[in-house]
Design a protein that fits this description.
Number of helices: 3
Structural class: alpha+beta
Largest sheet: 3 strands, antiparallel
Number of strands: 3
Radius of gyration: 18 Å
Distance between the termini: 48 Å
Mean pLDDT: 84
Number of domains: 1
């Protein structure tokens, strides 16, 4: 049995560090934390960096995209 299966199988024997790491890698937790971070950035007036097929851009709360020239 590998360590990953021990995490899922027996939460009672996990250390606090193992529980923290498991939550850190949980996609649902990551999405929730990312959403909170974006909302906090926008509330502070700071754009969020994103990327699409046209390149990197700053995304503002109103949906405006400002593309960034990358050398």
């Amino acid at each position: 049995m590998n360590k990953a299966s021990v995490f899922v199988a027996d939460k009672k024997t996990q250390t606090p560090g193992e529980i923290f790491y498991e939550n850190l890698c949980n996609p649902k937790v990551v999405r929730e934390n990312l959403k909170k971070a974006i909302e906090a950035s926008w509330a502070a007036g700071v754009p969020v960096l994103q990327q699409d097929e046209s390149g990197r851009y700053e995304l503002y709360p109103n949906g405006k995209k400002k593309y960034i020239k990358v050398n």
